[in-house]
Every structure is written in structure tokens, then in C-alpha cells.
Amino acid sequence: MKVIHLATTNAGGAGIAAVRIHNLLREMGHESHLYVQHKDADSEETTELGGKSGQGKKYMVLMRLARKLSKLKSRSSNSADWKKFRKDDVYCYNDWDEENPDGFFPGIENKIDLKNVDVIFVHQIIGFLNTFDIKRLYEKSGARVIFTMMDMAPITGGCHYAWDCRGFTKACFNCPALPYSLNTRSHFQLEAKAQNIMYMNAEIMSNADYDLQFARASAIEFSRYWQYFYPVDENVFAPDVSSDSKKSNASEKQKNAKYIFSIANFANDVRKGFTYVLQTLLYLDSHAPKGEKIIFLCLAPELFANYKFKNVMFERFAFCRNVNDLAAVYKKADLFLCTSVEDSAPMMLEEALLCGVPCVSFDVGTARQFITDGKNGYVAERFNALDFAEKAYGMLYQPPRTLQSAAKIHDGMVKILGKKAIISQFEKILSGEKAK
Questions:
Q1: Distance (Å, whole) CA 325 – CA 322
Q2: Structure confidence by residue, pLDDT tens digits, 148-171
Q3: Angle of the 347-354 helix axis to the 406-417 helix axis, nearest 10
Q4: Which of 49, 109, 170, 179 has the largest CB neighbor count within 10 A?
């Protein structure tokens, strides 16, 4: 089967996910090719089409500028509308000019080998393509079009994460991500997406039951809804089992110390929940048993410089440029904190559990699908900082009798996320077998 993939880049969370799917299909024997706007990493059968600039990039810059100008204008005018409709910056809204029939990349259908293509996977295409571009590829190839739900962008009028807004289920008016003067733009973008997706008879697939429910509720109707999980190398992301590796790990770790790793490494990423990491560390600092230390593995210890901890210490690790380095960080941890409060997976939760590390996660994405309370971690109530911190403390210092060993946690996840299981999922998707 001939398959092509479209993604803005082959790096970052969404880019890596696209590469992993592309590589898996190649391993399965399919003719798979990845087309990206710009390459930030080397990967096989990958073609760069546009570099780091382009029409889509221009629209993104214009969108952000328009948002800033609108907010400044509203502030300076002392308008009641500014106070009433002031928009929260937690929203990630990057789509712009989605309704432009010329698309972001006129002529892209002539730059891609579409001969005998069976399936087009549309991954995250922010700043690269819009649905009119995809429509032209569909018209020239006649291929099945399947959107991968890396976030909520395919099912909304522009939001990548809708938080508690449900405007995308109707018309996307009064968008909470946009200033008052711009908040109808989301409606027109939603309409354009809906029409193009219906015309292409496009399908969608998602990791999380959580997101599939939103997809089904969206005013943008897809012809089929699939579930899949990101391919993760179960041999790399696995507990160390040899006696030599155990001795090595033990020699690197301090005595009477618990090591913690987290999904949130940057303070300005509200969605990843850095605030909840900080609150959990403050709780552990004041509740840790006498003589016990908590060591937080992080990229930037300086983020915590203004806080005076007694029992919490910080250990810097270098930016992980390959999966082996990343897996080594997981394996050093006694607990992984998944503090995302708006997420479609996340992939780091899969990786941590495959490494046999117990996890405490907010109830988002695939948390309920992967975590069984008391066996491989706990799921905390979304936004409830105290519930999260207490469950982290319990996992570290009062572990339940039912807590599984690292090997059992890994084996349980392999049944869900192992290569055989994921290949089976993609065989069903590619064959067009009856979807859920």
C-alpha cells in the first residue's frame, strides 16, 4: 500500500509522533513517505517542501499581530467589552485564513508524488497547509484522507485545546481564544473545515477516548473515527533487568532519596501544568519523612531558584536528543508526574509506563486508559492540586500493596502499546475495517 504523511516538521512532540507512525508503516512493508514543511532532524523517506517560511507562516504572524493589536486597542479605549471579553492566554489558537480557497501552499499537488497513493495521513500541519490544500491533494489522488488528532485543531475553528469551551460543537462563535473584535473568525474557519472534510469524506483517528468523544461531538463531521496509540519502542523504553545496570543505577542515586521526573519542564507552558509540579514539590517538601530527600530531575533547576526547599533538591539533565538518553532519565525516576491539564495523549505517559515507572496523572488524554489506580499509579482529579500532591506522596511513601513491579508495569503496557498491538490497530485502519 502506498501512504503519504503530511506534517509541519519531523521534530517536537507532534513531529516525532508522525515520524514514528511513518516508520512503523515502513516496517509493516508499506511504501510510506513523509512530506514536511521543514526538517529539523534526519529521518528516512522524508522530503522537505517549504523551508521555515511560507504562506502559512505569514498567516500565523498576521494572526498573532492582530490578536495583540486588538487587545491593546481594547485596553486603551477603556471599553467595557475589554473587561467582559478579555481573553485568556492559556488558549493555543494558531489557525488563520483557513477559509482561504487558495490554501497555504498553492501547487502542492504538483510537488508530491500522488500516483497510486492509497492513504494520506494529515498530522499536525500548523503554518504549513490548510484543508483547501488537502482537498486538492484528495482531488488529484482520490486517496483516503485520515487526520491524526495530535490535538483538537482538526475538530475546532482554530483552538488546539478547547479547555472548557464547547463552541466547536455548534458554531464556534464568541471564541474564548480571541479578542472580542476577532471572535467570529473561528466560526468561518470551522465552516470551511467542515465543508472540506465532508467533501473529502475524511476520517480521523485519536489516541484518547477523551478526544474521540470531542471529535464525535464536533460540528465538523468525519466519516469514520479510529483509535490508535503512538508507536513507542518497547525495547528502548523498558526497565533495566540486568544486575550490572541495576548496580549502575544504584551508584548514581543518592541514598534515602526519591527521584521524580515530570512532563512540565518550562514555566510558561500552562497546559503542561508547571504550577502543579511546583505545588506538588512544595507539598512533598513539607511532608517528606525525616531524613528523606526528593530529587527532581529537570532541564532548568533555575526555575525553582526563588523557592526555599528543605527536602527537595534538583538535578539537571541535558536535553535528550535521542530515545536512549530519554529512556535513561525515566529509568532513574521513582515516580513520573503527568501534570498536563489539557492533552491528547501524552506520549511521555506511554514512555514512562513502558519504563516501568509508576505515574500520577491528571484525568486527561489516555490517563484512564493506561493507569489502573494502585497498580501502576494514580489518576487525580483534573485541576485538583491537593489531590495530585497527596497521590504523589502516597505513591512515594505509602505505596499500595497492589503496586506492581517495574517489569509487570512494562509487561502490562506492552499488551496495549507493544508493536504487535499497534500493528494490529494500523492494519485495521489501513484495511478500512469497520471503525468504532
A1: 6
A2: 999 999 999 998 889 889 999 999
A3: 130
A4: 179
